Amino acid sequence: MRVDAGLAKLLGLSRTAIASIADADDVLIDGRVVGKSDRLTAGAMLEITLPAPPQPVTVQAIPVEGLVVIHEDDDIIVVDKPVGVAVHPSPGWTGPTVVGGLAAAGHRIATSGAAERQGVVHRLDVGTTGVMVVAKSESAYSALKHAFKERTVDKVYHAIVQGHPDPIKGTIDAPIDRHPKHDYKFAVMNSGKPSITHYEVIEAFRAASFVEVHLETGRTHQIRVHFSALHHPCVGDLTYGADPTLAKRLGVTRQWLHARQLGFHHPADGQWVTYTSEYPADLAESLEKLREEG
Question: Considering the entire predicted model, what is its pTM?
């Protein structure tokens, strides 16, 4: 295998990260410096000098416009996440975050988890809006993490995808891994983690379909990747092959994907609770345009 591909698998790092290490002359085979495109050979002595770990990212308590608290009690806080907001800080992200917005508003959340994502039990993409839950108590954090892992949480998304999926109701069962060429994307790959998406078309238009999606697993970009693999990308999702002309006509500047509903057993008493998020203005307006076009 190539050095970048082989070491990415061996170390669990991205190919871009491995390329940076190789470019710094920090990959040696049998004492000889090699580049990212050189080949690994069986039986050779491999030496890698890893860079110093990045400094921990801290949470900045900064108000977030449009971040709405749907429900709050002693154990959980349910929020409606606006577009352009990350769930927690990460290297390279300088924009607003859910945890930073909650901190700025005076909300206390659990201290379990890594420092930059304490209380976070699941995530939504920066460009995806909708309902999500954050743990406030340590017991709630443990219970909700377990619930997401055991797939007992009901995660319902609404999306508008290009074209008309056939069949109109089905299951996409295809493993997802990081894209082999673009680190910012994911793709259906045999080497990926099991990923299961259930969908049903609830309204059809000339150029697109309005679908309801139930996620069985929760991989990064799962809905976007799965529908792109079916050649029905989310409208406006240019990263995964959407038609820019259709997006412009509908006034969509990001993927038409919304976390519509979240249901789970409340960690305090086990009672089933469900929370719903209304469509933000940009998605509602584009949906109405599609309905007017017929």
Answer: 0.81
